Amino acid sequence: xxKSWKYCIYTSKVAELYVEYMHPSExxxxxxxxxxxxxxxxxxxxxxxxxxxxxxIKELRDMDKSHTGACRICDGDSDSFINIEFERHNxxxxxxxxxxxxxxxxxxxxxxxxxxxGLCANILRDFVAV
Length: 130
Known about the structure:
This protein has helices at residues 50-66, 115-129; strands at residues 6-11, 15-24, 28-37, 40-49, 70-74, 81-87, 90-97, 106-112. By secondary structure, the chain is an alpha+beta fold. A hairpin with a 3-residue loop joins strand 2 and strand 3. It is globular.
């Protein structure tokens, strides 16, 4: 995998979700999350433990099979997070990009189709494998 490779996980008329691989360390990895929701957009670097991310990949795969559940991915260095959950048979994506300790941060929410789950799990799996 190339360093700083950017992947589109989801795009629609009202929302976009991209992730970009940044760099690994022994037990952690850093990736950027770019969100556009309606007319607002933001980006934040998430630093997470590889074993934590492997748990989240399993949660995403389980959700994709069962069409139920939720997965919350939290940044290890701030209060930024992304929550993906089934809500009345729809997939709701919401969260906070940028920590509240920053000058700028953004809350977002949008509905997506479930193709987001498998694609997100595969991309994160590739990040862990580097």
